[in-house]
Amino acid sequence: MPVYDYKCTDCHKAYDVFHKVREITEDVICPSCGSTNHKKLMSVTQMSMGSDSGCSDGSCNPYGGSGGGCASGMCGLN
Q1: Per the confidence metrics, is the pTM higher than 0.85?
Q2: What is the separation, in whole angstroms, between the first and last Cα of the chain?
Q3: Which of 54, 7, 76 is nearest to 35 (CA)?
Q4: Which residue of 2, 15, 35, 36 could cross-link 30, Cys pair, CB 3.0 to 4.6 Å?
């Protein structure tokens, strides 16, 4: 079920709405003030790959292995 993020244009609160099949804008109501005036926000997807290995300081390679992070000779390209 897709999740859409909205921001109320009346009270400026952000909130999420779960839509079952398709987005019906008449069903989008601000939970704070009850307004139907809103702006759809760009959503950012979060993805987790694998289990937590205790690398909370960012020193681990998120793609596995212990390499320095360069692949296919792309280290010199910015």
Answers
A1: no
A2: 38
A3: 7
A4: 35
